[in-house]
């Protein structure tokens, strides 16, 4: 199968299961207009995160890697009125575009964007109140550092998702050694003996190609 086939299949199921959302469409358009890279989660993946938050009755979510706020909007839409998404972004331009999109979505009071290197902000973040879900989707070489912080900040029974851990199969092919691939390997190596989480990786295909995510349950 090919990207064309995966895209057709995403479109097929989305036509039954995802409603039209002018706000999310406007976000995608604005991101493109402002020159952001096309690396946000897909609509189906955004909805998956949204449903996951609702399933665990989440009130607070933390995201590393805001880009234009597309996934942050999916997350925020899953939370109650008094819920909160904190999302961290190093690029001032990305953060500015995200702020525009979040404003247009009417979600300004649910989403807080922290601009700067995620690790710096994370180290300062207090674990109270804890997060129900952490979505790690920033620079991949820092995956393990982010995961350690995520564990500190997530309530027992909460979930940590790490995106893009399959990388078209490159992570499992030891011939590849680029820093993004190594960032994932370092993470799973550490999780192997980590007694604070129980984890699995799900490979995915779709409009965004072949990749996958790590799902960790915080014990
Ligand atoms: N979660 C977004 C979505 O689905 O809409 C996509 C995030 S994109 C894959 C990764 C983002 O992480 C980029 O916007 C990039 O600027 C940001 N980033 C890279 N290094 C970072 C760092 N050290 N701290 C915070 N953000 C970083």
UniProtKB/TrEMBL annotation:
Record GO terms (molecular function): O-methyltransferase activity; S-adenosylmethionine-dependent methyltransferase activity
Keyword Transport: no
Keyword Transferase tagged: yes
Keywords from the UniProt entry: Methyltransferase, S-adenosyl-L-methionine, Transferase
UniProt feature coiled coil, ranges: none
Gene3D superfamilies, alphabetized: Vaccinia Virus protein VP39 (3.40.50.150)
An annotated GO BP: methylation
Family in the record: Belongs to the class I-like SAM-binding methyltransferase superfamily. Cation-dependent O-methyltransferase family.
Protein name per the record: O-methyltransferase
Organism (species): Leucocoprinus birnbaumii
């Amino acid at each position: 199968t090919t990207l064309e086939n995966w895209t057709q299949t995403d479109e097929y199921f989305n036509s039954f299961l995802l409603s039209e959302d002018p706000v999310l469409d406007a976000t995608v358009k604005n991101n493109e207009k402002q020159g952001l890279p096309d690396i946000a989660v897909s609509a189906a993946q955004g909805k998956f995160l949204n449903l996951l938050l609702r399933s665990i009755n989440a009130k607070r979510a933390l995201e590393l890697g805001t880009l234009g706020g597309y996934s942050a909007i999916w997350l925020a839409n899953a939370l109650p009125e008094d819920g909160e998404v904190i999302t961290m972004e190093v690029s001032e331009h990305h953060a500015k575009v995200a702020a525009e999109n979040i404003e247009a979505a009417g979600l300004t009071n649910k989403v807080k964007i922290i601009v700067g290197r995620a690790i710096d902000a994370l180290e300062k973040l207090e674990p109270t109140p804890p997060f129900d879900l952490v979505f790690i989707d920033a620079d991949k070489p820092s995956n393990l550092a982010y995961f350690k912080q995520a564990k500190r900040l997530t309530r027992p029974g909460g979930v940590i998702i790490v995106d893009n851990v399959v990388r078209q199969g490159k992570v499992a092919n030891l011939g590849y050694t680029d820093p993004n691939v190594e960032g994932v390997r370092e993470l799973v190596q550490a999780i192997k003996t980590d007694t604070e989480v129980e984890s699995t990786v799900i490979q995915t295909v779709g409009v965004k190609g072949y990749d996958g995510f790590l799902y960790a349950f915080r014990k």
